Amino acid sequence: MKGLMQDWPLRVTTIIDHAARFHGDREVVTRTIEGPIARTTYSEIHLRARKAAQALQKLGIEKGDVVATMAWNTARHLEAWYGIMGLGAVCHTLNPRLFAEQLIYIINHAEDKVIFLDLTFVPILEGIKDELPKVKAYVVMTDRAHMPETSLPNALCYEEIVEAENGEFKWAEGDENDACGLCYTSGTTGNPKGVLYSHRSNVLHALAVNMGDALGMKSTDAMLPVVPMFHANAWGISFAAPAVGAKLVMPGANMDGESIYELLSTENVTATAAVPTVWLMLLQHLQKNKLELPHLERVVIGGSAAPRSMIEVFEKDYDVQVFHAWGMTEMSPMGTLGSLKAGMEDWPLDKQIDVKVKQGRAIYTVEMKITDDDGNELPCDGEAFGHLMVRGPAIAGAYLKGEGGNILDEDGWFDTGDVATIDESGYMQITDRAKDVIKSGGEWISSIELENLAVGHPKVAEAAVIGIAHPKWDERPLLIIVKNEGEDVSKEDILDYMEGKIAKWWMPDDVAFVDEIPHTATGKIQKLELRKMFKDYTLPTAQAAE
Ligand code: AMP
């Protein structure tokens, strides 16, 4: 027997319709690429998204076509995003930090027909335009006064084409399972692969990430997503914030500590989300200038492991609640978030932080388990670690055009490539990426745990750990350090600091100092590159063992 409820397709346009109808005057504030702060509202964004859809239609874009954006978090990006999806096309967010060859591959593979771009990215696309035969037009997201001289073929001015329309446009109708978003994974091996989100998966993900135990945004919140819309949908915030009418504060191109602090304080931001490197810059700025964060209530940290030292500073020095989150592009992207469970509110702060250091509990819609190499499920005891497997309606079932073949096991589980523990209360903790874990004497050492400990040293700016071949132990950890500006610190200082805080056999065999640690396009430490840099490196302990 079928239920007798209304058939209301879960399409993302319903989100912006709701925002405009019930929170129409709620602000979206942007630090524009041209410089000044710009203010608009959800009803204005709703109107201009429809105008953008009309403009795209005039350019010949139809339902199912792919339209790309190469843009920072701005109100214009949000309009274009809803306009593209509202036309029934697929919004492909390009990560401008990718190498030229990767961008060329992705744009051609996705068959992008039009690219919306910020002023910042005109030179990048000019550099590769000759390799992009399928792109029919480039829409520069600025006004006529700021339109640059450009060699891009068919370069259009966003404000001109949008304002030429009247906004009398009815969103495309269709199945909730239609594609509406596309984001390529930042996989470090092989070609990037396309994750094709549907209207339904994005709506469900928006509802799931916004539950009280997850992002828990309300209409009274002001949310600053530092995490870019081109990195897995700004963790769902571009859907979840309008769904509740939360004010959005968009940082544009400036993500340094000073710029973020300025927006946090002048716009009374209550919640914000970013990767640890952004928070490192903010905290340095706050400490250097003796500043406070009086309005901020919650900070979400994800994308890479949040070090304990960072969580402690936010919680203890600034009275801001930290939520550690984990996810991946293939998961829309949020998988877990570390809010406390009943009973834990009364725990002493340090004991709460023991929980917050973990990557958190599965949000509703995410099924999660850990398995051994043979696929057997491992116990949730906080000790056993294994392959982290996930399943759910906002998790990829295949990559675009079948790249990578079948990505699910016979029971429909997706292997995240992460190794993790899950404890009795359901809190998951990432041990490592499966390929980064250090295999020493048949046991595993978590590179993440060593890195997080080392950055707690006050003179260390960033730390990375890789396994180096060892004649006796197979692999041993090498700790690679970037010192804080103007500080000096020795190998012995660092090892003394770590001593006693981890098992003795986990202690790094050596410490190397570098000026910079290489990062991927999404801000993660590029272990592959580090392994190349240190491929001829011999550990002092290896010489002794020979
Ligand atoms: P991406 O698809 O670029 O978002 O990368 C996803 C990967 O980032 C995950 O599979 C993890 O390896 C890593 N990751 C994301 N969040 C965290 C976190 N909080 N702690 C540790 N690793 C994380």
Characterise this structure.
It is a single chain. Strand 24, helix 14 (491-498) and strand 25 (510-513) form a beta-alpha-beta unit. By secondary structure, this protein is α/β, with parallel strands linked by helices. Strands 2-1-11-10-12-13-14-15-16 form a nine-stranded mixed sheet, sandwiched between helices. A seven-stranded mixed sheet has the order 7-6-5-3-4-8-9, with helices on both faces. Strands 17-18-19-20 form a four-stranded antiparallel sheet. Helices cover 28% and strands 24% of the residues. Among the domains are: 367-433, Luciferase, Domain 3 (Luciferase, domain 3, Roll), CATH 2.30.38.10; 438-545, GMP Synthetase, Chain A, domain 3. Helix 1 packs antiparallel against helix 2 (42-58) and helix 1 runs parallel beside helix 8. The mean pLDDT is 95. The protein has 16 helices and 25 strands. The structure holds adenosine monophosphate (AMP). The site of adenosine monophosphate has 20 residues, from strand 14, strand 19 and strand 20.
